[in-house]
Write a structure and sequence with these properties.
Distance between the termini: 56 Å
Number of helices: 11
Helix content: 55-70%
Order of helices and strands: HHHHHHHHHHH
Shape: elongated
């Protein structure tokens, strides 16, 4: 029976090289990098030293990371702002900075158009139109919510693709949580 070996702990310079190697693959927030470095550090004080050093040489910049991440998720994935905001928070970007980055990335975006584009690109069965199956429309609604869109933009879009839009019932959804988040976005 094999036993798991403990990962090798790294001294400060090795830890710095490890961090640079990670950043060469993809961007990281300071919070994510801190977590990675803590797992590998021989000395518990080293991760903060490395984070400061990376910031000094501009290899680590949370503001730039958050802005480019939000823009990329909007442009490449077509996600709504609430999804991008949650993703940034999962990537350990601070709430205020995440709100600011998402607010800037979505400032000039028409969310209704973004919903339509998302449906066209990712939901061809719905985009074909004439959908009569209420369960398909409900599934599309849930998928659009997970993609970060507000119900006030989802329903008009789904009504365009429904065979009987008058039968599409809007659920009693408290949109105030979305609106208060939206106000915090910029």
């Amino acid at each position: 029976m094999q036993t798991k070996r403990k990962p090798k702990k790294l001294a400060e310079e090795e830890l710095f090289s490890y961090a640079v190697k990670l950043l060469g693959v993809r961007g990281y927030s300071s919070g994510e990098m801190r977590s990675k470095l803590r797992a590998k550090a021989a000395d518990p004080a080293d991760p903060e030293k490395i984070i400061d050093r990376l910031k000094d040489i501009k290899y680590l910049d949370d503001e730039q990371f958050a802005q480019s991440y939000a823009t990329a998720r909007r442009d490449n994935e077509g996600f709504g702002k609430f999804r991008v905001l949650m993703d940034l928070k999962k990537r350990r970007v601070g709430g205020e900075l995440a709100n600011e980055a998402v607010g800037q990335a979505y400032a000039e975006v028409n969310e209704a158009e973004l919903v339509d584009q998302y449906i066209e690109r990712r939901m061809p069965v719905i985009a074909a139109g004439g959908v009569t199956d209420q369960s398909k429309l409900a599934m599309a609604y849930r998928r659009l919510r997970r993609a970060g869109f507000s119900p006030r933009h989802i329903f008009p879009a789904l009504k365009k693709y429904a065979a009987h839009p008058e039968e599409l019932e809007e659920p009693l959804v408290d949109d105030s949580a979305d609106e208060s988040s939206e106000e915090g976005l910029g």
